[in-house]
Design brief:
With 84 residues, this protein is α+β, with helices and mostly antiparallel strands. The protein has 2 helices and 5 strands, in the order βαβββαβ. 17% of the residues lie in helices and 42% in strands. Strands 4-3-2-1-5 form a 5-stranded antiparallel β-sheet. It starts with a strand and ends in a 7-residue tail after the last strand. A hairpin with a 3-residue loop joins strand 2 and strand 3 (36-41).
Length: 84
């Protein structure tokens, strides 16, 4: 609907289901359905930078609720720029 959520998650939880130590990371949510959250990980390496990954909704919420994230979210809204 034109909204782009940018969220801080604990990357250890998001990738492994557990957090050995807090690893705050920013992801861009690109969509969701009843079971999954779809996101883009703008990491600084080829391993981390993957567009349109999907993760079970419960795991994403766990990563967003991890100690240190403070449930931070930035919502960007506006018309997309047209190419050309």
């Amino acid at each position: 609907a034109g909204y782009v959520p940018i969220m801080i998650v604990d990357l250890n939880v998001l990738l492994n289901g557990e957090s050995w130590s807090y690893n705050g990371h920013i992801v861009v949510v690109t969509g969701f359905d009843e079971d999954y959250i779809y996101y883009h990980n703008p990491g600084n390496s080829a391993v981390l930078s993957k567009p349109y990954k999907k993760v079970p909704k419960k795991l994403f919420i766990k990563a967003w609720n991890a100690n240190g994230t403070d449930n931070c979210v930035i919502i960007v809204y506006g018309k997309r720029a047209q190419a050309g």
